[in-house]
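Lab meeting prep.
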Amino acid sequence: MGTQTQTPRFRALSPTPRRREAADSQPDNTQLSWQPLAYYNFFRLVVSSVFCMLANIGLFLKPLGGHDPQLFTTTANGYLGVGVFAFWLLWRRKPAFLTQATSLLFIDSIAIILLMHSSGGTGSGLGILLVVVIAAGGLLLPRQLALLITALATLGLLAEQARWWLIGDVQPADFTRAGLLGIALFATASISVELARRARASASLAAKRGSELRNLALLNEEIIQRMQTGVIVTSADGLIEHANHAARQLTGQELPTGEALAVAAPELANKYSGWQETQTQPIPEQGEKMRTTLGSLGRREADIQQNSTLIFIDDATAVAQQAQLMKMASLGTLTASIAHEIRNPLAAITTAGELIKENGREDPEAEALTEIISRHGARINRIIEDILQMGRLREFEPQPIVIESWLAEFIDDYLLTHDLPRSAVEVSAASDLTVKFDPDQLHQVLGNLLDNAVQHCNKATEMPWVTIKVTFSPENHKTVIRVADNGPGIPKDKLTELFTPFFTTRKEGTGLGLYIARELCSNNQAELSYAATNDEGAIFQITFNRPRQQEFSL
């Protein structure tokens, strides 16, 4: 059997709905800035509410509002309005983040300096609120803007202190407090900016790692879903945790997550129970459709009963077919070698028979014997040709074939070369059916089926003697070509040997035609079979299989 190579197919995949949902659920990078701004807005609202409440009920706790109660009340009320307005801006996300944060922090600095002035200057202790404002600026703003807010707040603080000095109502300690507060503001700004930088770097790294993990998880899921091998994960209680598309297709069950394996797939549940008891793999059975392999996801043998179980399901027919192909490939190579060696002595025997026939034309007995030599030599030569062809099946090149037009051209050629009337073969095919097959090999397969049908049909009846019908099954999405004749059919006791090499019901046959036809169909991922019928005649059908796992657009 010739080896077959296929050109790899590459296909660009767009995100699946689940992948798009996962991408949409990823946190926005701006959340790292908007959320801290919301916290700081809440802090502003609380502070302004406390000041507004104290001012409006007339409870001026010393030294709050001790210098100018009216200014303190006006500033507190305005500050509360700013706090409420800031939440509205935050909800709208307009203007942009930097514009909001910078403007509000600048207003905070002015409001706190006014509150501090109305309470008697730096001695009121309200200057500590500027430290909170500057710290927030360092966390929320870039370094340059944070230092700008710090410089403006420090200048406002010095201007406030200079005013007290100009009116002569100042103590030496006030200058010390103002200087220390200014230094504290710049120190706070520097520290908070550095902390914010590190926090952003850590958050960016965490987001990158999280994105990589999500992509890896999605990639793994995509690979598992597209595997030809079925994969089922069950919990220690026997509940289905995950099942891919191939597992559902091979078992013919939905396998919903959370359902007991014993309910969803009883046959698998029996093998699963046996594996849990003996810790040995299920023994392959003759004629089974699925081959099951089980394994524990636990790392230690002692934990097997408590861990999830991984169940692999393979198409046993495909495995058996692959093994058969390998076996037949070796057998084909051997038989081809033997046939090649037989060819030389066969040619010598045939030539000798021809020479004896020419020399013994006057001897009827010799002529009859040489005729036997010639006839059987030709038969052996046909067998050798079939064996050699079986051993050197060429690589197939499947192509889309519009079956109606192709079949019409094929039938015209066949009837012409075999000198048959057009009414001898009746063809019925839909106009929109397309199959994927190597055209030359399909020609060889149908030619062999028609040869058998014409040779075994009852030509004493009315035409058509042979009927070719192409149908499509919506249930399994497969196209089928049926070739039926009106002959005696095939005895039931011979059906098991029908596709066996060298089995034939004709004296002149080699018994390799149907076998080679079936191999050609198998190479093209199709199936050649005999359809049992109670009526007279034989029916052979070619089933063009769709890919086991449909390609789906992601």
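Slide two material, second protein:
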Amino acid sequence: MIRQQLAEWVQQAALDARAAGALEFETLPEFEIETPRNPQFGDFAANLAMLLARQARRNPREVAEILRQYLPAESHEWVERVEAAGAGFLNFYLKPSWAGEVVRHILVQGTRYGRLNLGAGKRVLIEFVSANPTGPLTLGHGRNAAVGDTLARLYEAAGYTVEREFYINDGENSLQIRNFALSVLTRYRQLLGEPATMPEDAYHGEYVKDIAQTIRTQYGDSFAEGDPETVLKRFEQIAKQQMLQEQERDLADFRVRFDRWFSEQSLYDSGSVQATLEALRARGYAYEHEGALWLKSTAFGDEKDRVLVRANGMPTYLAADVAYHRDKYERGYDLMIDLWGADHHGYVARMKAAMAALGYDPNRLHILIYQLVNLFRGTEPVRMSKRAGEFITLREVMDEIGVDALRFFYLLRSHDSTLDIDIELAQEQSEKNPVFYVQYAHARICSIERTAAERGVPIPDPATTDLSVLTHGAEVALIKRLADLPDEIARAVKHDAPHRLTAYALDVARAFHSFYTECRVLDAVPALQAARLLLTQATRLTLARTLQLLGVSAPERMEREAP
């Protein structure tokens, strides 16, 4: 809020200085509004002068002085003074009244606080999770889900029209789905006492046996009779549908919803895959070699050309994926975001190349790669799932530590870095647990408000309460962080970085706990008590809003473990 306003004023100063002939530059670089570590250098500082100095052919300190002189008059409403200092910083010293106005603004905005219009209604499609329907969602899929869903919430808060999509890898040519169906069929035959051997590349784990048992219970002992290929298709459809239902149920419990579940097979049924291949041929970017059809992806920077259709006539996964992304472009989205696992890193260049080959702007497609998740119980790694055998399921971890903790821990680090989750820490009811620390701040505020109500102390009217008394260092530090929510949302969207919100939530909680320790809310002198009650209310609204964007609950009551 304040950072954004200061940035607008600094930008306007630069443009006005250029118009007046006081500064020369072609393009205005991106710059930061920072909080100086030393308060003597002001409340906020801008680094634009240092970035403009080369273009302006002037000393950065001189550029800063020119910018200071051209700051618009309305900046005086909040700014007491501005100094050009150091290596070319513009240091802003705000009026004491600014802090109270921030609190008033948050209370007026209420649950709308942090809403922006950066997107101006532009359409964004976020495709995430998109797990194969051959097994339960894994611990890794959970990270994909948390990051993708939080990104969607952030883009919505920033004023974009967002759609969420799950791409179902269910093409008839999928070897994975065929092996999965064979695995279920084999377990079914074993339940009947037949000497059936699991196929090569089989799917193991108790969930395969569970599906086989469900099929036997529902359809009896003769369901595997008939033509082998027909029987396999029968098992494939049922097993696939059961896994999709389970995945959808797990995601719903993880507070993740999708607007559309898009079937890969529908691309074949509609002729979209064939039409896409023909479009690539027509544009000269698909060619035949040794009986196979190739994408000329090297024309767009890929390290080598890629096979679209094998020599045996079977399309590769790439063929359907290109058709799918072509479909996305044809639906008219302004921006498309894909969230892929680390094993798909090499796939990015070929997909971008395919879109360019079809004549689309590849810059409208953002592909984010998320890294692996390691699960620990204290210092001991957790490696095997009770149910899946070969991997850890999202459901198991979600049931053990809860949705709130798991979502928060998934978002503690940038999606492009490896993440370690400690189950014991996530379950701990103490300040060492980051999600507990944040939620406890919200619950503590609710406790203050309940106590005030029990004492007959009403929540004051923000329109008439004197908020200029909020001058204590702990109060100002807290208000500064509250004021940053709109800027944090904007930055998280700009950089596709939802982990910024967990860091922000922790900062706000830390600032509030410090304020609570240093400043009495109830039993303060009446004027200060009224102002501090409104500050705690603004903090509660900000914390609740931040947690909502993270998909984490904001409890009103919590208990701490005894130290």
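Talking points for slide two:
The chain has a mean pLDDT of 94.
Residues 126 and 337 are 5 Å apart (CA to CA).
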